[in-house]
Each structure stands twice: as structure tokens, then as C-alpha cells.
Amino acid sequence: MSERTDLPPPTRWAQAGERNVGYGRKFAALVAEGADVDGEARLADVLVRRGAAILDVGSGMGRVAAALSARGHHVIAVEPDADLAAQSRTTYPDLPVVEADAFALTPDLLAAAGRPAAYDLVVCVGNVLVLLAEDTERVVLNRLTALLAPGGRVLAGFHVAGGGPDFARHYSPAEFVADAEASGLRVDLHAGSYELHPPSDEYAVWVLSAR
Q1: For residue 128, how many other CB atoms are within 10 A of its CB?
Q2: Which end of the chain has less neighbouring CB within 10 Å, N or C?
Q3: Distance of alpha carbon 131 from alpha carbon 20, whole angstroms
Q4: 26 — alpha (psi -120 to 50), left (phi > 0) or beta?
Q5: How many C-beta neighbours within 10 Å does residue 93 have?
Q6: Per-residue pLDDT tens for 148-180?
Q7: Distance between CA 148 and CA 121 in Å, rounded?
Q8: Domain annotation covers residue 7
Q9: pTM of this prediction?
């Protein structure tokens, strides 16, 4: 797979248009009902010390970032969708949100926004990686690697094939590992859920660190 370094085409998420409208409302309703939507945050929390610097890339309406902030971490949310970023600011007014696409996310961009340039943990869950623009996966993984502080890690999670949006990429574990390794990352853990069930053909959870 070739690596793109120019401006990317629209992401699969952006191309889906109206099919994405209910996403924010769905999770807002689950949060309001008191549903357990903290699975990703619970795993992220144990990967770092208390008070860690965490970047949530593709943060959506902010539920994971807010849960990590409530656990005592210093969290910055990054969300390119203006409507979801606005929902996040309304729902979690104390949560810092940077509107940026993962393809363009660099230490300089974050520094220009008055945010840290390096993080103990970069969280990229909720199918973000299977909704990127075509052929930009390695560029984005390189971006995430460049944002890691010494000893920092990446927590990634996505539906491998099916189960997620019908416009998402089918991203096999073998393809993902090849892209991650080409981007300077190594696999520390591969599981099938945020509760660390064995790897499955439906969902993949990865803990990665710089090589």
C-alpha cells in the first residue's frame, strides 16, 4: 500500500454524509440513560499512570475523553466533524476539543492550538481507523507515532469486518500490523475486546508502542 503525503480525499466518514447523522444522538441517549459506555476508557486508564497526558483522536461526542478526564488524566479531544465537536463542547464543557483531521495532526498543529505536542497515550478507537480516507492509514499511524512521549503507547480499536458502518473499510489484522510496523510501531497486545477477550474475527483492540 502506498503512503499518501498530499492532502487526502474525504474520509469514508465524510463521504457517508447523512448516514452519520444519528451517531452523536445515539451515544448522547446512552449516556443520558446511564448505559455503560466506558469500556474503552477503562482499558486506557490502566495503560498509564494517574494524571497522564492523553490524546483522543477521532473523539466523536467526547464520551471516552470525558471518562478519562474524570479518572484524573489530562485529556485533549481531537474531532474533525464540526457537529460532533460542537456536541462534545456542549455535553462536556470542560473538555478541550481541537477540530482537526487525523491526517493533518502534528505536534506543530497541537502546539499552535496551545496544546501539548507529546502524549503518554494516544487513543484512536470507535472505528476511526476504518473510516479514514482510502490509502491514508500509514500516514495517520505515522502521525500518531510522532505524538508519543518517551514510553508512550497507542490504544486502537475497530471492527475488523462487518459489525461497524457499512461504509467502513475491512481492515484485516495482518494488514493493520504491516501498516503499524511500517509506521514505527510494534504490537504489545492484540485482543478481541476492551475487556481483553481473545482476538476475534469481528473486533480488534491493539496496544502499540514506538519501536
Answers
A1: 24
A2: C
A3: 11
A4: alpha
A5: 8
A6: 999 999 999 999 986 677 778 899 999 999 999
A7: 7
A8: no
A9: 0.89
> Which domain does 109 fall in, by range?
12-210
CATH code assigned at 32: 3.40.50.150
pLDDT value at residue 98: 97
Judged against a pLDDT cut of 70, whether residue 201 lies above it is answered with yes
Cell digits for 94? 470542560
Asked if the structure places residue 30 within a domain, the reply is yes
* CB-neighbour burial class of residue 33 (10 A; exposed 0-12, middle 13-18, buried 19+): exposed
